[in-house]
Structure formats: structure tokens, C-alpha cells
UniProtKB/TrEMBL annotation:
The organism of origin for this protein: Ceuthmochares aereus
PANTHER family (alphabetical): NUCLEOTIDE KINASE (PTHR23359)
GO MF annotations in UniProt: AMP kinase activity; ATP binding
Key words of the record: Kinase, Nucleotide-binding, Transferase
Name of the protein: KAD4 kinase
């Protein structure tokens, strides 16, 4: 997400005024498992996820048959460290938007269960786009 740090939030303030900020609260273990399941075909940048977008043959790119690799950043230990660092950096950002009354938090583990609530919020904030025929 963005902004991730207070410095980024302050820079964003200089170029636009936010009226809605969304925070997705997803359990640490869920995030760690999802990020750790990511594998990449280095030559093309194709990304696979062993849980919800696996290659046809485990460990092998679907198009070239070349081996997939896992970035050092995607290994479970590195993911856990990244998530802890993110949580510490993001806390003041969350507090800033909470104090402004524009933070909306959603919790869960599955996109299809969180999305309807996010969609309802955004639909209430953004006017519908009318076609020329409707104007």
C-alpha cells in the first residue's frame, strides 16, 4: 500500500488532499504464507503463487519450462522481517489518517469477503459515471 511511511504521507499531502484512506487488516500468518508462496520466472518476470496461481508443473515456468526461483525477499524469514518493519513504519501513518477521520479499516483473510465492504464504501464516496445517453 501507499503511503507506507509518515514521510510519504506528508509528501502526498503536498500534492493532493485525501478524503478516504483504506487499511486492510490481514493476519500476519496469512500475509506471510501468501508472500512466501510467490515464485518467479526470472527471464520474463512471470509470477506464480503456489496456492492460487501455481504453474502447471511444480517449480517450472508454464511457457518455457525453465526453473522458477524464489526471491530472497519472499522466503518466510525475510517476509516475517519485512512485515514487522512495515507494521512499525505504517503505525504513524494509520494514526495520522485516523486522527483526520478518513481512515476506514477492513479485516479478513479473503479478498472476495472483504471486497464487497470496500466497494460499498467507495461507491458511497464516488459519484457514478453517467453515459452521454443518461445526461
Amino acid at each position: 500500500g501507499f503511503p507506507r511511511t509518515l514521510g510519504q504521507a506528508e509528501a502526498l499531502d503536498r500534492i493532493c488532499e485525501l478524503d478516504v484512506v483504506i487499511s486492510l487488516n490481514i493476519p500476519f500468518e496469512t500475509l506471510k504464507d501468501r508472500l512466501s508462496a510467490r515464485w518467479v520466472h526470472p527471464a520474463s518476470g512471470r509470477v506464480y503463487n503456489m496456492d492460487f496461481n501455481p504453474p502447471q508443473v511444480h517449480g517450472v515456468d508454464d511457457l518455457t519450462g525453465e526453473p522458477l526461483v524464489q526471491s530472497e525477499d519472499d522466503k518466510p524469514e525475510a517476509v516475517a522481517a519485512r512485515l514487522r518493519k512495515y507494521k512499525d513504519a505504517a503505525k504513524p501513518v494509520i494514526e495520522l489518517y485516523k486522527s483526520r477521520g478518513i481512515l476506514h479499516s477492513f479485516s479478513g483473510t479473503e479478498t472476495n469477503k472483504i471486497w464487497p465492504y470496500v466497494y460499498t464504501l467507495l461507491s458511497s464516496k464516488i459519484p457514478p459515471i453517467l453515459s452521454d445517453e443518461e445526461n
